[in-house]
Amino acid sequence: MAIKDRKELFRREKFKIDCQGPEGNAHAIIGYARYLMRQLEWPLDRQELLIQEMLASDYENLIQVFDKHFGDYVDLYR
């Protein structure tokens, strides 16, 4: 075990997703959303509501909803 500076606690590297690359397709982004929701221990009903919201319209809606909920953890690049 190492003793670290408390500032390290608040620093975290964000995921980076290139929306032009293979990790930027709709299925991959939904997969990232599911992964993050599990890590954040969201209830299953809330997870499904978010996926429905992401799929309610086009790709632009999908990435906007994703960014709204996970922008603190992920940077999206166009």
Structural write-up:
It is a single chain. The termini are far apart. Helix 2 runs parallel beside helix 4 and helix 3 (44-55) packs antiparallel against helix 4. The chain is globular. It is mainly α and 78 residues long. The protein has a domain at 25-77. It is built from four helices and two strands.
Unreliable residue runs: none
Order of helices and strands: HEHHHE
Count of DSSP-assigned helices: 4
User: What proportion of the residues is helical, as a percent range?
Assistant: 40-55%
Strand arrangement across the biggest beta sheet: 1-2
Using the alpha-carbon principal axes, give the shape: globular
Largest sheet: 2 strands, parallel
| Structure summary, number of beta strands | 2
The overall average pLDDT, rounded, is 90
Helix/strand class: mainly alpha
Q: Please give the alpha-carbon distance between the first and last residues.
A: 40 Å
Q: How much of the residues is beta strand, in percent?
A: 5-15%
The radius of gyration is 14 Å
